[in-house]
Write a structure and sequence with these properties.
There is one protein chain. By secondary structure, this protein is of the alpha+beta class. Helices cover 32% and strands 42% of the residues. The chain has 2 domains: 190 residues, no CATH class; 148 residues, no CATH class.
């Protein structure tokens, strides 16, 4: 018993010493691990460590290096990390949970490339993949440069987001979101077969005179293959603000109007299918396309056919596209899909009107006229379909 007590006392002293050493070294180890995993400059004003794996970070920033040196992609005053102790033995940064509130997140689009908090890690991932295709001798000499990263749960509360697009506007066209709340599970780099799931809600500010739009998104994506099944909805998007984007699809100018939409996004083996239910409210055009047309149809006719009694325009769009085919441009696929949808909707509405008329004629016993009109409807429905 005496020897057991002595052993327990020595073990307790050793444990206290180890915890003290770990408490002193852990903040520095975490800072280095984050920089190595993200391949970005990371600024942390202070780190408070709580045994065994809780870190409280103050003044946390991730800064860009390439193309936007010194500009931030992620900033937050306070962040809590639950770091797995397995990080010490597996030589990978494993974060069980991140809780973030009042963060500012920025993604930049420049020369068809996205710059964001994880883009540096993506660059290292591509470099490692390139090294994996090199010769045997190069593989033997090459050392993996990327520290693997796992984030099991990322919770975001009352945060802000900016998307700055330098490809549609050289000065940077900005789309901002606020009051972002959501959760992302299972972020893994390098990519694996694990599905990353997410659910996010946010507001889209549209100026002082416009009410913010409401946005929700949820689903999953398998990053290694891009396979995706997600749902996206938004209410009250003010269309004139997004002229740089809709101008990629049509030359028409929109003076006013709002878009409500629900969409399902599916990607399987690089084949994307986008199903969209769209509703346009108070749509007002400043100008149409050449020849007073919209997507290959007379503008006045298409608008009159699509509007319901309350003046709303409702239609469905189905977009299909192999995203691996670099010879195809997204804007061309979208325009053709809208053209097909609108033409089929108009033809369907015309058909419904004529079918109702035929029914009335048939009830009066005019079978011959009925047959002729059915043939005419068939021809109309085949017209403009492709």
């Amino acid at each position: 018993m005496k020897k057991l007590l002595i052993f327990a006392s020595v073990l307790a002293v050793a444990l206290v010493f180890a915890v003290n050493v770990l408490s002193q070294r852990a903040p520095g180890l975490l800072r280095g691990a984050i920089e190595k995993a993200l391949n970005k400059k990371v600024i942390i004003r202070s780190i408070d460590y709580h045994f065994p794996g809780i870190f409280e970070l103050e003044g946390f920033e991730i800064q860009e290096k390439e193309s936007f040196p010194g500009e931030t992609s992620f900033t937050v005053d306070h962040i809590r990390l639950d770091v797995s102790l397995l990080s010490l033995s597996k030589k990978r940064l494993i974060i069980d949970k991140i809780d973030v509130e009042d963060a500012d997140i920025t993604i930049r689009q420049y020369r068809d490339k996205l710059y964001h908090a994880l883009s540096g890690a993506m660059t290292l991932l591509e470099a490692d993949a390139g090294a994996g295709e090199a010769s045997i001798s190069a593989k033997q000499n090459a050392q993996p440069r990327m520290m693997p990263l796992e984030i099991h749960q990322f919770r975001l509360k009352n945060s802000n987001f900016r998307f700055i697009d330098y490809d549609v506007d050289q000065n940077g066209f900005v789309v901002a979101l606020d009051q972002i709340n959501g959760e992302v599970r299972d972020i893994v780099l390098p990519f694996s077969g694990i599905k990353t799931s997410y659910r996010i809600s946010a507001r889209l500010p549209q100026g002082r005179e416009q009410r913010p739009a409401e946005i929700q998104m949820g689903g999953w994506t398998q990053a290694s293959t891009f396979d995706t099944d997600a749902n996206l909805s938004f209410q009250g998007v003010f269309l004139p603000y997004f002229h740089p984007y809709y101008a990629q699809v049509t030359q028409a100018g929109i003076e006013g109007g709002y878009l409500n939409s629900k969409a399902n996004i599916r990607i399987e083996k690089n084949d994307l299918t986008l199903n969209v239910d769209a509703e346009l409210v108070n749509l007002l055009f400043r100008s149409y396309e050449e020849g007073d047309q919209l997507f290959g149809l007379k503008a006045d006719e298409i608008l009159s056919f699509l509007k319901d009694r309350s003046g709303r325009l409702k239609f469905q769009i189905v977009v299909r596209w192999n995203i691996a085919d670099r010879s195809v441009r997204a804007k061309d696929v979208i325009r053709k899909s809208i053209e097909r949808s609108l033409k089929n909707t108009v033809i369907g509405n015309v058909g419904n009107i004529l079918e109702n008329t035929i029914q009335k004629i048939g009830e009066r016993g005019l079978d011959k006229n009925k047959e002729e009109m059915e043939g005419a409807i068939k021809k109309i429905k085949e017209l403009l379909k492709y």
